[in-house]
Amino acid sequence: MARTEGRSRIARAAKVAVVGLLATPALAGCSVQEVIRFGWPEGVTPEAESMRNLWTWSAIAALVVGVITWGAMFWAMILHRKRKDDDGSLPRQTQYNLPVELVFTAIPTVIVAVLFGFTVNVQNYIDKENPTAGGPADLRVDIVGFQWNWEFSYPDEAGQGGRPVSTLGTSDTIPIMVLPTDRSIQFTQRSPDVIHSFYVPEFLFKRDVFPFPERNEQDNSYIIDRIDREGAFVGRCAELCGTYHSQMNFEVRALEPALFDRYIQLRKETNPQTGQAYSTGEALQALNCGEWCAPEAISTQPFSTDRGQLAAQVTG
């Protein structure tokens, strides 16, 4: 009788748990896609999607193992708890049970091997040396991270004076990296001082920016097959690099290819209003394409490196 009541309680608890699990997304106003991302940002590249899929299925596998483990724990606690009529004898023991031990050894080994295989496959895709479609990347971008800002340049696009078109961040200007959608992009990065880290959350990965990568035997070049949609995204330095590390931000603007080509062309021309080459902000403003062409940073703020001013703000 007691065992029957215990099983009934387990069944009721299981039903409540299942109903709660199914109701959580609806009550939280989340879509299925949001739920299975398990907190990850929405990726905008194929590489990001491959990493998100790895994370999702790894989390689901962990939850399955967790549910089985929790079920076994609660089953043991409920059905084998001490009762008033117990005579003090122990339940049937299964130590030195060879089949059980083999199963408990084989299953974790298989799980680890499968996760390792999928991880290596995704890692190889992320670290590929050439675009998946073959051939060289459609666009090359050089990234320089320095204390405490960024410089982005296009080595294959010569601007005025023969120098590559580039964008340099300062204490007064948040640098904006302009990229095309639907084109493969090769990034090459370096640092002249300390280790920084190039991080765009929507790319779902970060890359450390090393000083003298050739001496440190670091691969400082990587490729994304494309950016899937237009948008404005905030980038950050994700490696503690000194006093103003927290302010070392930048923004990415992803434009459709025709707009990007027009942007690059403007950067090579002279702005008739200033008599100088178009700056990043001026070129974006001239495109007049709405939110994605905002001439200034829209999600981050410039910072002051005047330590006296900072001290006055703190004491004030």
Explain the overall architecture.
- The protein has 316 residues and is α+β, with helices and mostly antiparallel strands.
- It has two domains: 2-80 and 96-126, no CATH class; 139-300, Cupredoxins -  blue copper proteins (Immunoglobulin-like, Sandwich).
- The chain is built from seven helices and twelve strands.
- The strands form three sheets. It has a five-stranded mixed sheet with strand order 3-2-1-5-8, with helices on one face. Strands 4-10-9-6-7 form a five-stranded mixed sheet.
- Strand 2 (149-158) and strand 3 form a beta hairpin.
- The longest helix has 34 residues, at 46-79.
- It catalyses: 4 Fe(II)-[cytochrome c] + O2 + 8 H(+)(in) = 4 Fe(III)-[cytochrome c] + 2 H2O + 4 H(+)(out).
- Subunits I and II form the functional core of the enzyme complex. Electrons originating in cytochrome c are transferred via heme a and Cu(A) to the binuclear center formed by heme a3 and Cu(B).
- InterPro entries: CcO_II, CcO_II-like_C, Copper_CuA, Cupredoxin, Cyt_c_oxidase_su2_TM_sf.
- GO terms for molecular function: copper ion binding; cytochrome-c oxidase activity; oxidoreductase activity.
